[in-house]
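Technical note accompanying the year-one report. For the benefit of new consortium partners, we illustrate the data format agreed upon in the data management plan: each record pairs a sequence with a structure-token string. No post-processing was applied to the example shown here.
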Amino acid sequence: MQYRRFGQHDLSTLVLGTVQFGLDYGVANTTGKPDRQTVNRMLATAFEAGVNALDTASMYNQAERVLGRALADLGMRDRIFITSKARPREGASGTPEEQIAAAVERSLRVLGVERIGLYLLHGYQALPYVGALHRKREAGDIGAVGVSVYSVEEALGAIAAPGVDAVQHPLSMLDQRFVRAGVLERAAAAGVAIFARSVFLQGIVTMKIQRLPEPIAEVGKTLARLRELAGELTIEELALRYAASLAGVTGVVVGMETHEQMERNLSAVTAGPLDRALLDAIGREVPELPEEIINPGLWRWSRDYDWGTN
């Protein structure tokens, strides 16, 4: 396992995402949420391989509670770095700052920990309320403060904001907006850590090209070329190692719902970085794809698409 420095911590390059612990998440997810036994087995395998960082959120339904129970089962609550997230909700009681403070307190309680290593505002729109997290840091409840964003403009705004230690944003072979805009370099110059997510673009990277939904079918040509570049590697391994190989990326957040996925992802990330020539080739071969393809938030058609059948 490779490790990268974040504050006083050496974090595993692979950060285990837990959204699938609380939600039937991902277009390629055909098994749903893993049961307690599967969660425990996945975490045990990850810990044994050297993974020491987890990512969760208060909005992932019961994910924090499931994770807290699993950490207790495995005796790992004091030996793991946890990132969680929250945002204020319209119509909820309390000011936005009070809602965020209450979310931190709930996260601590259901996770069963005394301190959360990194707490993110779940959305750039919540950045004006970052003071609530700063106060929680001063109280010793959290270690670092960050923001989860969705666009290059939001990432650059978060990097420039005072008191932001980390930014989490999408990054994949198909979505190179942040790389090409120089976000990683800007973050490094400002001393802000970058955590990459959505490296498989909700599973689109791993789908059979002939099965791609019509609204995003044009990405098939790019995927075909990437599979040629992969050579003996699987497209899954190429995608994960691509993100992990980029200078300026502190950790790669990968969600998974089966133990088999865990084993494959561990094998990929422990294989080490891709060589420079292959990284450059990926950068050359992937065109600027429309945001309607690379931003799942714009997949309005997906609500009626039968992912299980297709």
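Partners are asked to follow this layout when depositing records. The CA atoms of residues 219 and 293 lie 8 Å apart.
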